[in-house]
Amino acid sequence: MANDNQNQVLDENTDVLDGDKTAVKRVRKAKPKAAEGGSTASLFGIEPYQPKKNEEYMSDGQLEHFRKILQAWKAELMSEVDRTLNTMQDESTALPDVNDRATQEEEFAIELRTRDRERKLIRKIEQSLEDIKSGDYGYCETCGIEIGLRRLEARPTATQCIDCKTLAEIKEKQNNG
């Protein structure tokens, strides 16, 4: 059954492996059908924003759209924090086997590192929500131009336009490389 799903779209090419007469079909993933705006992704169940004709950049509708995305993202991260806390409390029993204890400690350490990264992301989300309130959201903090709706859809916490971010990454690579 799963194999049927994988072979929905096939190339007409076949390969012969090491003289074996077994033919292998190359599988090409089916492309999702694009919605009218050219985007198919929905973030947290929120469809991508479709700007209206002659709509001003960062209008009230756009700001509300990104506020919803940011709040949903933050809520999801906070629920992960709660889940981790509950898991660690439930599984914090002293295991008699040293190897089992070591494995558990390593799993906890990985989980805590992940939560630390998410804690930093929550701060960025909160900063983006503050920027929405102050009217600075959607504009590059370096040069002041519009970041762009599609970039913000991909990364709602973006604070730089693509040109400034690319330049900053090149500089960082030169300094650290």
Automatic annotation (TrEMBL):
Residues 1-11 have a biased composition (Polar residues). One of its GO terms (cellular component) is cytoplasm. Interacts directly with the RNA polymerase. Belongs to the DksA family. Residues 62-132 form the DnaK suppressor protein DksA N-terminal domain. Signal peptide: none annotated. PROSITE patterns: ZF_DKSA_1, ZF_DKSA_2. It comes from the Bacteria. GO terms for molecular function: zinc ion binding. Residues 135-168 form the Zinc finger DksA/TraR C4-type domain. Keywords: Cytoplasm, Metal-binding, Zinc, Zinc-finger. This is RNA polymerase-binding transcription factor DksA. Transcription factor that acts by binding directly to the RNA polymerase (RNAP). Required for negative regulation of rRNA expression and positive regulation of several amino acid biosynthesis promoters. Also required for regulation of fis expression. It is found in: Cytoplasm. One of its GO terms (biological process) is regulation of gene expression. A zinc finger (dksA C4-type) spans 140-164. It holds the Pfam family DksA_N. Zn(2+) binds at residues 140, 143, 161, 164. Residues 1-47 are annotated as: Disordered. InterPro entries: DksA_N (IPR048489), DksA_RNA_pol-bd (IPR012784), DnaK_N (IPR037187), Znf_DskA_TraR (IPR000962), Znf_DskA_TraR_CS (IPR020458).
